[in-house]
Each structure stands twice: as C-alpha cells, then as structure tokens.
Amino acid sequence: MIALGTCHLTRRFGGFTAVDAVSFNLLPGARHALIGPNGAGKTTFVNLLSGALPASEGQVMLFGQDITHLPQHARVRAGLARTFQVNQLFPQFTPLESVTLAIGEREGQGATWWRGARHGAEAARLLDDLHFPEADRTRPTAELPYGRQRLLEIALALALKPRVLLLDEPAAGVPPAESREVMQAIAALPRDVAVLLIEHDMDLVFRFAERITVLAFGAVLADGEPDAIAKDPRVREAYLGTAEVAHG
Amino acid sequence: APRLVQAQSGNFRIGLILPMTGPFASTGRQVDAGIKAWLRRNGESVAGRRIEILLRDDTGTQPDVTRRLAQELVVRERVKALAGFGLTPLALAAAPIATEAKVPMVVMAAATSVIVQRSPFILRTSFTLPQATAPMAQWAAANGIRNVATLVTDFAPGLDAERAFKNRFTAAGGRIALELRTPLRNPDYAPFLQRVRDAAPEALFIFVPSGEGAALMKQFAERGLAQAGIRVIGTGDVLDDDILNEMGDVTLGAITSHHYSAAHDSAENRAFLESYAQVLPNVRPNFMAVGGFDGMHLIAEALKRTNGNDDGERLVAAAKGLSWTSPRGPITIDANTRDIVQDIYIRRAERRDGQIWNIEFDRIPQVRDEG
Amino acid sequence: MRIALHALPWLVAIGAYFAMPEQLPLLSAIAIAALFALSLDLLVGYAGFVTLGHAAFFGLGAYVAGILGQQGWGEPISGLLIAAAVAALLGLVTAPLVLRAGELAGLMVTLGLGLMLYEAANKAAFLTGGADGLQGVEIWPVFGAFRFDLWGRTAYLYSLAVLFVLFLLAQLLVRSPFGLSLRAIRENPKRAAAIGIPVKRRLAAAYVIAAAYAGVAGALLAQTTQFASLDALSFQRSAEGLLMLVLGGLGTLYGALIGAAAFTIAHHTLSEASPQFWQFWLGIALVALALLGRGGLMGALRRMTRR
Amino acid sequence: MADPLLFIENLSAGWGEGLVLEGISLRVEEGQALALLGRNGAGKTTLINTLMGIARQRGGAIRLAGTVLDRLAPERRATLGLGWVPQERAVFRSLTVAENLTAVARPGRWDEKAVYALFPRLAERRRNLGSQLSGGEQQMLAIGRALMLNPRLLLLDEPLEGLAPVIVQGLLFAIQRLVRDEGMAAILIEQHATQILPITDQAVILDRGRIVAKGASSQMLAEPALLERHLGLSLH
Amino acid sequence: MTAFLSVLLDGFASGMLLFVLSVGLSVTLGLMNVVNLAHGAFGMVGGYVCVVLLNRMGVPFPLALAGATVAAGVLGLVLERTLYVRLYRRDHLEQVLFSIGLVFVLGAAVDWFMGARQQLIQLPDWLSGRVEFWGVGLGRYRIFLIAVCGALVAALHLGLVRTRFGAQLRAAVDDGVVARGMGLPVPRLFALTFTLGSALAGLGGALGVEVLGLDPTFPLKYMVYFLIVVAVGGTNTVIGPFVAALLLGIVDVLGKYYVPEVGAFIIYTAMVVLLLARPHGLLKRADA
Ligand SMILES: Nc1ncnc2c1ncn2[C@@H]1O[C@H](COP(=O)(O)OP(=O)(O)OP(=O)(O)O)[C@@H](O)[C@H]1O
Ligand SMILES: Nc1ncnc2c1ncn2[C@@H]1O[C@H](COP(=O)(O)OP(=O)(O)OP(=O)(O)O)[C@@H](O)[C@H]1O
Ligand SMILES: [Mg+2]
Ligand SMILES: [Mg+2]
Fold first, then answer.
1. Is C307's pLDDT higher than 70?
2. Cross-referenced CDD domains, in alphabetical order (chain D) (predicted)?
C-alpha cells in the first residue's frame, strides 16, 4: 500500500513548467525528505498534493484513492495535512484559539452553530507537547516572535492528526535547539504517519530522513537512501555544494 | 398614550415634505420658495391663526422615509395639513397616513393621475400629465402634424404622458411612428435619438422630468434632427423655466404645452414674480413654484372658510370647489375629484430681451385630468 | 456587570417606548435598520465578505411580505418567515456566482446582481407596482390582537421583538465553531482551507443566513409601513447599511445596533434642523469618525471603558 | 576619535507602548561585520527595525557616520546608507523581479547585472512577479534589492533562511568579500551561529532585549559553553 | 449600416467619456489601493469650476478645462496631505466611511454656493454640431472626447504604469513600510499620485458637463459606473479600465438602440458576465 503517490504530476505557469511529470511514492510511516535547489518546484509540488493549486496534468493518489480533483478540505478530511513555507496563520486569533479551531474541524464540528467551541483542553495538551510557552498561547498571533509563529504553523498541522504530513521548511527561522525539539515531536508521531519534509538544513534532513528525493528543474534528479544521495555527484553539484553532511 | 389633541387656537401647523436634497432637490427648492412667496405676499396669519411651516426633506427617493415623516408630523408635531410631495411614489406612500389621521394632504408637485384617488383627503394644486399632454396632441393634429415619435422617461408620469398623447393624437387621426422609453437613471439619449432620426417622423413628442430636458435638447440639436425636418413638441417639463435660459438656442422654436410659464402675462403673475424674487433672487419660478404658491393659497382659503377650525374633514370640504385666479390663470379644485382644473397653454420658446422664455400663443381653457 | 452591559441596549430600547411615545416611527425605523446592519455584520464583519448588493435581499423580503399582504395573506409572522425563506433561496442561488469571482470582482458581482434585481422589479410593474411602489398592502394584527396603529406602537414593539430574537440567534451563531470558522476564513482563507474548512461552503452558508436576515428586515419594513417600493432594492440602501455597520464597528453585533441608531438619529435630527444642508453636517460627522475612531463607535466605546 | 560607522548608545526601543530592548550599546566600524545572535523573541529583529526607524525608539542614541538617526524617517535612513533585508523578505509582490531591483536602485557598484551575477536564478526569473517566486528566490531578491541601494551598512535579518546549501555558501562568501574588499559593513542575524561566526568580526548575543555577551567572533566560536548557555545550542 | 456605424461611434465616444471620468479612480483605487468613493466629488468640483470659468468669467473652453483640472488637483493635494494620509493604512471599509462623508460635505458645499439646479454650458462653435464622414455622422464634441481620451490613455500608460515611478508607486502600495525602508519617498509618491487622480477626476467632470449635466448629486449618481469600469478593467493598469469603459459604453449604447425595452439590464448583465469570466480584470488571466 502506498500512502501518497503521484503519477506524472505536472504544473505549468504560462509557458513555465514548475513541476514536470513527477512520479513519486510516499510509503505509510515514511520519514521522507524532499530537497532541491531554490525554485526546483518543491513548494509547488506540495501545493499540488494538498490541492492548493490544481494540477495541469497527472494524478495524485491518497491511500489508493484518486484525489486529483478533490478540494483542499476534502483532502484534509482524508488525512492529508501540510504546513506552509511562508507562515499562513490567523493573525488576530490566539494560538490556543487557532489550534482549538483546527481540532474542531478535524472532529467535524465546524458547522455546529448552536453551542460554543470545545476541545480547548486537547489544544492545550498539544501545545504542551510542542513546548509552546504558556504566556504566548493567549496573545494574538500577529504579536508573537517569528520563531513562535513557525511553531504554531506546525501545531496546526499536527492538530489535524494526519496520516500524511507535508512539512515545507518547518525549521526555517527556528533556532537549531528548538528545531531539533520540533523534529523530535514529529519523529515521535505514530509510526503509521507518513511524513514528507522539505528542508534546506542538511543537518536536520540527514538526521531525520530514511529516504530522500531530490528535485531539480521540476523533475526528480535522484531518489534513494541518504548515504547514496549525499555521495551523488549530481546532487552535490546542483544542491549541496561542498557542505559537510552530518550523519545522524 | 398619545392622542390627537383638537386644538382650535394657536399656530396652524403645516407639515411640508419635499425633496430638498438629492436628484430632485430643485423641485423642493421651487415649491418651498413658492410657499414662502405666498406668505410674504399675504402675511403669515390666516383666520386668526399663525401659519407655521415644518419643512422636512424626503431626499426624493425614499417612500418609506416620506411615510415616516408624514407619520411623525401628524403624531408628534400635530400638523393639521400635509403638503408638498415631489414625486408620485412618495405621495402614494404618504396617502394612507392622511386618511388615517384625517388631515388634508395638498399635492403641490407630483403629477400622476391616480394620486388623488388614494385618499379622500388629497387635494392637488400641481397638474397631471394627461392634462398637460392631451392639448399638445390636439394642437399637433390640428396643425398638420400627422406622424409623431414619442420619447418619454420610463416611470409613471412618463407612461401617463405617453398614453395620453397616443390616445388623443390617434383619435385625431395622427399616427405614432415610434414609441421610446428612456431609463430614469443614466439616460444617454444618443441611441434613442438615432432611432428617431431613422424613423424620420414629422415631430418628436417628449416628456422627461424637469432638468433632463437640457441634455435631450442638446443631443437633439447635435444629431441634426432639426435639419432632418423633425420638430420638437412636448410638455412644459422639458423646457423648465428653472433652466430654460441656460439651455440656450437649441430650445428656440420648440413647442410645448403646460399650465404655467413665467412669461404668462397677467397682474397676478407679475405680483407673484415680484414676491418670488424676494425669496429666491436670480431664480426664475417654474411650474413647481406656482404649485406651491397655489397650494398655500388653497390651504389658507379653506382655513378662512372654516373660520380657523382645523378639523381635517371640514378643511377638505371647504377646499372642494374653490376657484381663484392664480399666477397661471383661472383654476378650480374640482369638488368631486379634488383635482385641479386649469387652462393649458401652448407655448413657443423664443428670445425676448436677451432671455429665452416660453411664450404662450394658444390656450385650451379649463382642462380636466382625463387620466 | 457583563450581563448588565449586554442588557443595556435592550433596556434603552424598551425605555424609549415609554419615554418617547411620539418618536415610535423613528424608533421602528432604527430597529429595522439595525436588523439590516446586523445581517451585514454576519457577512462583512465576521466572514469578511463585503457586499454592495445586500439590498437585493432586503427588497426581496419587503416585496414578498408586501405582496402576501396585498394578495390577502396579511398574517405578519408567517409573512416574515416566508420572506426569510425566499430571500435565503435567492442567496442560495446567487452564492455560487458571487463566490466564484473572488474579492473585488465578487463585490462588484453583488452590486451587479442587486442592480439587476432593481431593474427587474421596476419592469415587473404588474407584480410590484413598478416605480410607484406596491399599493394596497394590508397586514393583519400581530397574534390577531395588535393592530398596526398610526402611532406606531405595535410596529415598534413587533420590530424590536424580532430584532431581539434574531440578535440572540446571531450571538449564538458567532460564538459557535461555525462562527469561529467564518472569522478564520476572514483572517486567512488559505490556512482555513488547509485545516479542512470548506471555505466556499461556509461562506455560502453565511451568505444565505445573511440573506435571510436581510429578508426579514425588509419584510418588517413592508409590514410596518404597509408599503414596499423600489428604493428597498436600491444601491443606496446597501450602501447605507454598510455605512451604519462601519460607523458602529464591524464584527461585534452590537456595533450594528449602535451604528444603525446613531446614523438614523443623526440623519433625522440634522435633516430636521437643516433640510437643505444636513448632508454637510452628517458628512463632517462621518469624516471625523473615520479619522478618529478605529473600529467605529464600538471601538471608541471599548477604548473608553478600558481607561 | 573619529565616529564609527554605526554608533548605538543606551538604546531602548519597542512596539507601541511595550518596551522590547533596553540599554543596548554597540558600534560597528566600516569594513566590519557583526553577528547578532539570540533566541526567538530576544529582540534581534526589533533592533534592526529600530535602526530602520520602524520599531519605536524610546531612548538612547543612534548615529550613522556621525549623523543622528533618532528622528529620521525610514527613507532618509535608507538614503544615508542603510540596506535592509527584512526577516519576512517582503519583496514587492506586484513588481517583477527586475522592477523590484530597479525601483530602489541607487548609483554604485551594485546594479542589476551584479545582482544577477550573484544570483543567476534571479536572472532566469527576471520577468516574474514578486508574488510568484519560490521562498528561496524571494530571499535572494530581498538581498539583491538591498544591495541595489549600494548601502554602507547592510542589515541582514536571517538572510540564509530558505536558501539551498550551495547558495548559502556562495552568499556567505560574497558577504565576506563585500566587507573585506569593498569596505561595506554588515549586521547579520542568523539562528545558526556557527554559520556566520566564521565570517564576522564581532558578535553580540541578545537575551530578552539586553546584551548578554559581546566579543570577537573567533573568540565566541571557541567558547561553545557560552553559546550553549545563551542560545541553547550544542555545536555538535 | 450607416446607422449602425453611427451608433457604434456614439458608443465609442460614450465609453471614452466613461473612461475619462473613471480613470482617476483607477489611479487612486487601482494603483494606490485607496477606496476613494469621493472620486466623483472631485469630478463634480472640476465640473463646477469649469462652469463658473466658462459662464461667469467668459474663459475659453480649453482654459476652463485646464482650470478644472488644476483646481481638482489642488483640492486633492490639500485633502491628501491633511486627511487621506491618515487613512492609507486603514481598513477599506473605513475608507468608504470617510470618502462617503466627504461626498456629503462637498455636495452640500457646492449646493450652498451654486444651488441644486442643473448647470449647463455652451460649447464654443468649433466643438458644437456634427460632421459627416461618408454618411456616418458624429458630433464634434464626441470627436474631441475621443481625441482627449486617446491621448490620456497613452500618456498614463507610458508615463505612469510602465515607468520607474509606476514601479515605485506599486512598491509603496504593496508594502509602504518596507518601501520606505528601501529609500522610496512614499508620502511624496502618494501625494503626487493622489493629486494626479484628483486632477483627472476634475478633467473628467469638466468634460462630462456637456453630456451628463451637473448638479450636486453627480458624485453619487455616477459612482456605480466608476466602480464598474475599474472592477471590470482590473487594477494595476490603465489599459484594462480603458478597454472596459469602451466595451461597456458600446454595449450600453448598442443595447439602447436595438433593444431599448430592456433598459439598464444590458450594462449590468455585461458587467456581471465580464466579472465572472475575468475576475482579475480584462487583461489578466485568472492564474497568472
Ligand atoms: N504563480 C506562479 N507563476 C509563475 N511562476 C511561478 C508561480 N509560482 C511559482 N512559480 C515558479 O515556480 C518555480 C518553483 O517554485 P517553488 O515555490 O515550487 O520552488 P521551491 O522548490 O519550493 O523553492 P524554494 O526552495 O526556494 O522554496 C519557481 O521558479 C517560481 O518562480
Ligand atoms: N510588529 C510587532 N508588533 C508588536 N510586537 C512585536 C512586533 N514584532 C516583534 N514584537 C515583539 O517583540 C519581541 C521581540 O521580537 P523580535 O521579533 O524582535 O525577536 P527576534 O529576536 O527577532 O526573534 P526571532 O528569532 O523569532 O525572529 C517579542 O516579544 C515580539 O512579540
Ligand atoms: Mg519552497
Ligand atoms: Mg527576528
């Protein structure tokens, strides 16, 4: 069984092909990283998977179901959650409110109109798990320091209890110490949750990933075990440069 | 609980509801000035009671506001007469209040036929469109015009005018070549006039609300319809005295029918012009102003006849059948319909002493509404 | 303390009935305007969806209730419900069009649809009375007992009661998860979709609810004045509703009440004092408020109470 | 003694009524790079934004080459020689890449061509709108845009975030060259202290709005315990 | 056939007028992102200035046009510096509240000085009447409108949208704070542009007097049309609104000529259809 798969997935903007016939599989429970040069099409790929952008061609399958034409919210219902590279938060909501809202939607209570919101306790527990400081939970999101907003970005995705989680540069702007904590929380997700991580911090990537796919110019350049990728000369030239790669 | 108190002394309050702002503001200004002119001329005391006018703005477009204002005026301000009413829908909205409160309601501007039937307390001192239009049709037929296009604004008075013209003109053997209705808002007359040109009638009959006539006449000239041998005929609204002079040479020669022209030659009118000039200098009174002037006169006469008694039913009874010589000429309030009966004049726009006037050259005496 | 604060507007409203028995027509007008502004608040203030054509629903409600009354069904409460249903139906039909277009274009589509309905009502004179308005509306006494009188007592209490009930309902709505999700959509539709909120469906629901509310407001106007006219459908009506809402403050529900009251009273008093130039003073007031007070009157009130 | 390029004394600043920074004193000489370190919320961005005149300065003094900046509008500061790369990048969304660069250009060594040479990717996307760039491309554009001002002092708020490793290397090298060879000065914020300490001359660590450590970068690199204490950072 | 051409040209001219009236709004709303519903009020002021110069002072028509443009521009500049500056960063709806208030104030002020009546002007001889080309007639004034408008479009497109000034302006609108941080004189850019928008409104108002008439309700009466043009045309451009205005003018006039019964339906339907087909403006594709 494949958790999330694509078949010749393509996205064009005018004459420019950002994602070029990508066929890709994410296994249940995978700890998979997607790396590649800037503008390679990683975020666009995630947007296609999550339904934020319609595909020009190709298919997206989630647990065997064709979701290519499902709207975003239906994909979320089906167990697919994502974070954004550039924060997408509710500026006037407090973190607690935001997470409560996400949990409520997950539980299918978003259309309830006759009583107040529940799930406050579960939201608090989730923020505890992520070491989200108590004092920042009830301030408007807009006033939080950037790093805290990044953390909330992840909390919102985790609140949905996804079976497939797509993380677009979750650690960018977060100090290494904290990002490690975050990645630990993600690594500690149930073993059947598949995670796709996009990240330019190679420490994190090689610490986390069991498998790596490299995207360049919209197409798959390489795919394999971390060790093999680290040694691949094409990947070194296009992406890694002379960086030391830690092994975790 | 509030109650209508029957006061027989003190001020006689009149609730005057007019469009003082908005697209029809000039109507309100004219009527208001007409009333002020009457008070200036005749004094503010009638049958021992001081006349007090409470002016309210209905903006000309909101019937529910008009209705509420009428309601407030009778309930809170205890007015003993309602007056004004610039447009048909607004008058219609207020009619039930007059009925229920039993106060006379003097319509000074609105001109659709039906209005007076909506309440036994309504009296009218303006005119009706059929009343002003039918004589135009008759004159046209009698003066060798056989084939006419009509162009009216698409709202109740316009439809009244269209119907009246058609009935009378075809009855007299004429033919309607084309019937056009222009929208009330954003009328661009060019395409309509182009159609008129295509149809090439002998004359074009026009009714548009006052103020609109300017744009229409300009377009008429610009399109060269006159050169194409098409004459302009219409009701006096088109060549409203308020702006006639500024409309310029394009109006010269246009024939219209109406009940009042500022150029009307009579002692009453000269006196009216004089007091009006004291109220609103530099503005020529138009048919709206004379409607206000005569409406005020009607209320005052009725009040005199009841010896200052302000009971609404008695006031209306006293007003019915009244006749007098107005600045426009002899007029009567029909005892049955409570509508106005008046002379209608056929006029031609001409330049006199450097100014343009509607010069009356024919008269159809004592015309009734045939709505 | 909080409860007292919440009860205050309603106590004022009931007090006004006794204190100002001669001002009841104005007070009814305020209640109706408040309901209209409230319906806009649900859509604009909470869901963040601005419309310029909301009068379409107001006017439709007015004509439905009016035509019912004219055709011999003058029972007021069922009239309100039918008007609400018809307005909601129009909302349901037009929602996909309006939501399809996106922000500025959607706004203009609401405007266009509103203007089209206006023209349609104008042309359908056999049904609506055209530019003359709907004549001969007769509304039966409320509960068979309270006649709509010249002083406007029944009209006011009836309008106020309807406003009160719908206000409570609105309050329930905005505090519920549904209401929260509307606010979330306003704050960030992209993220809202990514946490599984069906954005368009929720907005459509808000649109339909707001339409029903506006329909009731229109029906109230038609019933209490026993009259309906084109101006109920006009752009001016939509714009005035928005002005009241912004004046009072968006997204608080109370702002709609305060804004409607303030605007209507200011309009009324100024135009009584100066029938020709009241717009000057009203304009000055609006400009000053826009410059001074963020969040409208409610914002100003909040800042004052916080001190 | 001659004024340093940037002179900050006893600065306090914040947002609205709140105070974030207190008692900050700093100097940056021409041709020097300063690393500004600290945890999330320490006030790094607030410091940079205060220099730009965007956060509110409440006390103390800021001078750029002797000119008092305290009350100057942001645009004046920019023309005096500050080149700012905001943390959120904030490229102009409705301008193309080329327009983003030319709209702010001031004469000097850095022009469109030089920026494209540093970031070839931008040249390829020259006609794209700012809103249609990838995250990393936006970062490059934000840096390029600041360079187009030909500033005397670059303020780089987490400029490496979101850039591919190979680009990071190139950029770090370029900054080093700018400072050493062209005499530009720079303040660099970065979460990964180890990445920028090697290319900066001095370093400052902020914690809760105060300077808690200050010294030569090389010395800091040699003191992992200090970094760990203030940044919660273990180097390996 | 000649009738058709004649009507088509009328529609063209009517669209041109619509454009001149709205172009100021596409500058303030489209480029500056300020919901300036008082746009029509600046047009009205321009119109009245033109009327006064022409009728009371006997100034030649072209000079009166220039006077109207300058007067509206100066008024815009003064109001921008004193009032509008405070509203740039506010909610769009608060801008609506403000600008409607301003419409009321200016409308009432004009009423105070000039009265509520229609204001009319007499065109000079060289602009009145009609010329015929191969049997197709067109009013001289409409030809004049077409010429002025064509020149405006070209000037604005080349001088405002596609220049460094235009890019700086858009940058300032995208993010005023960052733009200032990049050394752009944002307040000056805004003041200049707002002045330009108001001046254009004034010119439009003055040109419109002859065709549309003028009274204190002018700003509200035509507000809907201005909005339609800008919304259908799309923001960030002047060519879009230009095409939109032409299209709407032609559709409106042809509709009135061939199917006068449907009245104003046509223009509204056209607008809704265009908006649904091209939500981001005529010249932009949805996903670009
Ligand atoms: N709406 C759009 N129109 C045109 N081009 C676009 C659009 N969106 C993205 N692109 C282009 O598609 C390419 C891929 O972008 P994408 O955001 O997927 O890159 P990425 O791999 O996530 O890069 P990064 O690592 O920098 O985030 C980029 O070159 C970008 O400029
Ligand atoms: N625009 C703002 N409005 C109000 N408060 C702000 C704003 N920006 C930052 N703050 C507050 O200032 C304090 C310092 O934040 P700042 O962004 O300067 O930290 P930082 O060191 O840059 O953190 P990070 O590493 O997350 O970028 C925080 O408490 C934050 O909430
Ligand atoms: Mg990306
Ligand atoms: Mg920061």
1. no
2. ABC_TM1139_LivF_branched (cd03224)
